[in-house]
Each structure stands twice: as structure tokens, then as C-alpha cells.
Amino acid sequence: MIKIGCNYLSFKGAEISVEDFIQTCHNLSLDCVDFHQRAFASHETDYLLGLKRQCLDLGLPVGYLGMGGGFAGDEEFQQSKIAEAKGAIDMALVLGAPLVRVFGWSATDTQEREPLFAALARCLREVCEYGAERGVVVALQNHNNRNLAATGPDVLRIRDEVDHTNFSLVVDTGQWRGAHGAFGDMDPDVDIYAYIEQTLPFASYVRCKIYQIASGREEILDYQRIGCLLRAVNYNGCISIVYEGDDEEDRPVSIAKAAAHLRTVFTEEAE
Fold it and tell me: Cα separation of 264 and 268, whole Å?
């Protein structure tokens, strides 16, 4: 059974604590929660254990912990991001999150892309090794805006080059090159659903972007079509609602609509 939850960044820009976010997800009868590393008031173990206990008491498994930024930069910067990723793995272990979400490598318009794939794979492989020692999976999320992981074929190439059993993918439905994304720069000639289809068989988590849900149905992305793709690969994992709408209503109201919409279109009856 697909589990539908929510990402903390759905409340980005709103004044809400992690504790209130967890309680809100419980009030909305969601199945799980996932966090961003920068959301926490502290990285101390006692604080993280308190959040873990709150999630446990409210029946909300922690799906993943996300870290921001990619590995693009010189050797010193790469090492700093590797250290940050290792820190996120340590936090995930305390929280009980089975995986951490990482980003790839953002290239400038003037950079030659080919050498960057090897550098990214090297960074990710080191992080995967660290995660494997601690039982935490490392999962790369696709992203647009010049990212190396912006298309289905490129994501699969990175997966092949990392070549590590502790590596996985987080598929974000709205962050492909040519998708609506964070910038609204849609390209009608790009088939983002083909990218989703290519990468879903290797995904451990799916982030469902929500842009326009006032009607009760997401108007930008076709989630009935995405539901068919999920069923085709027998996806049985977690779905994370990531609300990036225009706040036409209170966030919890919009997230509740999104959850109801996804529960409907992701069932077999929707076919």
C-alpha cells in the first residue's frame, strides 16, 4: 500500500516548528513525514530523539531526511559537502529515517558537463560507503536548473556510475528539465512522464509536487497518469507531498486536498 505523507518544506516561508509540523500531519491523517536538515532547531541527539518519540507516539514513520545543495565546486567544497552529507546520515540514524536525500551537481552554462559526472559519482560513492556502515541509504533526487540529474537518462547514468548497493533514487515529479519546477519554465516539447517512467523502477521515495490544488485536483501535473506509472512498477513506498502553491488557502487545507486527490488517483479503481 502506498503511504502518503508530507515534506516539511511544504510550509516553507510559514512560521511553523518541526513539532507543529508533525502534529499537523497527524491531524491530517497522513501516513508518514519527511524532514529537511535545515528545519531543526538543534542537531543535538536529545532534541532529535524527542522528535522521533513524537512521531512514534503519533504513528508517523519518518520517511527520509533531506540535505540541501549539491556537490558542485572545487575539491575543498566537495569535501565539505561530503562531510555535511555524513552528518545528515548520522542525524537520520538517530531519527530512524531509512534514507537521506541528496542533490547532484549544478553546472554553469560554460562548464563542460562530461568530467562532472565522474566527480559527482566519486562524491556520492564515498557518502554511500559511510551510509552503508550505518544502515542508511543515500538517494539522489532529480532537479532541473542546470543540474546533472535533470533528465531520466542522466539520472540513470549517474546511478550506473556510482555503482553502489547503498545508492537509490528519490523521484521528484516536478523537478525535471522542462517541467514546471520552482521556476515555472515548462517546455511542452519535453516528456517529463517519460523521465518518471525511466527512473521509477529504481526509486525508494517519490516526491509529489503540488502547484494548483484549489479545485481539489492538481492542475499542472497529471497525477492520474503518474499513478498508472506507479502501478506499472508495483511501487509500494512512500509518497511525499511537497506543496509549492500560491497559498490560495491555508497550507493544511491545500495539503489535505492534495492528499485526498493522490489517494484517489493512486488507487487501482482510478484506472
Answer: 9
Indicate which CATH number applies to the domain containing 242.
Answer: 3.20.20.150
How far, in whole angstroms, is CA 94 from its chain's centroid?
19
pTM over 0.70: yes
Domain that holds residue 193: 63-270
What's the CA gap between 181 and 108, in Å, rounded? 18
Which grid coordinates are listed for 88? 545528515
Beta carbons within 8 Å of 65's beta carbon, 6+ residues apart: 34, 35, 36, 37, 88, 91, 92, 95, 97, 99, 100, 101
CA nearest neighbour of 44 among 84, 94, 97: 94
Phi, psi angles (nearest 5°) of residue 125: -65, -40
Phi, psi (deg, nearest 5) at residue 70: -110, -165
d(CA 48, CA 28): 23
78-134, pLDDT tens digit by residue? 999 999 999 999 999 999 999 999 999 988 777 888 999 999 999 999 999 999 999
Residue 8 domain-assigned? no
Name the 3-class secondary structure at 202.
helix
Number of domains in the chain: 1
